[in-house]
Write a structure and sequence with these properties.
5% of the residues lie in helices and 34% in strands. It has 359 residues and is mainly β. An eight-stranded antiparallel sheet has the order 3-23-20-25-19-18-17-26. It is globular and about 60 Å long.
Length: 359
């Protein structure tokens, strides 16, 4: 669908999108999502949103801003009913809870996702979700890009002068999805009975859920769940970073569906330490989960706080670091990029945080 990288001295061409060169002078910090591919940092909750019931859906990374690689949705809301059970045929979805609790159903399996828990949803899987707490939020990285039209056709524009994450006392009626079904929107509702028999947050007591390790499957066709800090972990000892992969191309498949997601915990940058520079052939997105993350692109540096988003296009040089004691961020890409590099340079690690000493 999209061809990566044709470089000249003036522009980079990505499919049908014209990309200004990485040396162009753009303000890195923006308050709206760019309509073309370029590096940017977007402060938390500043992107426009649409209202669905009393939930607000935002897109800090869109099909256009990623060059068709992926879309990143952010959903904020409160306790509500489950969305109609459905499946998609052209998109691979992932769910990562930021705060609150979210029940995610996949066929006859379900988990209650708490902060930093993860669930995957390959194409053709019957699924639904429900927010269970008065203030809940999750991210959904979807590959490839292009799923926005569905939400735009079942929601309404939202005005938010107070910068509230969602309208707690002004819900809309449940949406009518009849005009957003079928092949055009890739939304197929199904008459499917969900398994509501959850105990201790799971419908499957034969698999660990917050009481033992979870493993990444070697299959790209089945949904799976990873509890926060209970999946595989790797230590990059020299950087003082712990990388926890929750999805790789082995789980998402290759081609348009290819997706890599990790969480990364990093220590404070030491006095005199120079952060390494990186360039990758895949676009990437950073979302700060805890602490303060500094990122440098286009010769500009932005200090990011909780919820802020940075988008790094293909071929863009960047560096990042933490200037506080503990920072954690979500890292996503449509294929192998920074997360894979850190894992390859690291070692298996049994712990959620970096060591209390320098090697």
């Amino acid at each position: 669908m999209f061809s990566f990288l044709r470089l000249s001295s003036r522009i980079v061409i990505l499919g049908q999108f014209l990309i200004p060169p990485s040396t162009a002078t753009y303000p890195l910090l923006v308050t709206d999502v760019p309509t073309f591919v370029r590096p940017y940092v977007l402060p938390y909750l500043t992107e426009p949103g649409v209202q669905l019931n009393d939930d607000i859906i935002r897109l800090p990374v869109t099909t256009n801003s990623s060059g068709g690689a992926f879309s990143l949705f952010r959903l904020n809301g409160q306790v509500n009913r489950a969305v109609p059970t459905h499946y998609h045929s052209r998109f691979y979805e992932s769910f990562f809870t930021i705060k609150g609790r979210v029940t995610l159903w996949a066929n006859q399996e379900a988990r209650e996702l708490g902060p930093h828990d993860f669930g995957s949803m390959p194409p053709f899987q019957n699924h639904s979700f429900r927010l269970n707490e008065p203030d809940s939020e999750f991210l959904a990285l979807i590959t490839p890009g292009g799923f926005e039209p569905f939400y735009l056709n079942v929601s309404a524009p939202w005005s938010n002068p107070s910068d509230a994450p969602f309208p707690p006392d002004r819900p809309f009626p449940p949406p009518n999805t009849e005009n957003a079904q079928g092949a055009i929107f890739d939304f197929y509702p199904v008459d499917y009975a969900l398994n509501n028999n959850l105990q201790n947050g799971t419908t499957n007591d034969s698999l660990h859920w917050h009481d033992g390790n979870n493993t990444l499957p070697h299959s790209a066709v089945n949904p799976y769940y990873i509890a926060s800090n209970w999946g595989p972990k790797y230590l990059h000892r020299s950087l003082g970073q712990v990388i926890a992969p929750i999805m790789t191309p082995d789980q998402s498949g290759k081609g348009n569906y290819s997706m890599s997601i990790s969480t990364v915990v990093t220590r404070r940058r030491r006095a005199g330490e120079i952060s390494a520079g990186h360039v990758f052939d895949r676009p990437q997105v950073f979302v700060v989960l805890e602490g303060l993350l500094s990122i440098e692109m286009l010769g500009q540096c932005v200090h990011m706080s909780t919820g802020d988003v940075a988008f790094v296009p293909t071929g863009t040089a960047f560096r990042y670091w933490s200037e506080v004691a503990f920072t954690k961020f979500y890292l996503g890409s449509n294929g192998k990029a920074l997360g894979a590099k850190l894992i390859e340079e690291g070692e298996e690690w049994a712990y959620a945080v970096f060591p209390s000493y320098f090697s």
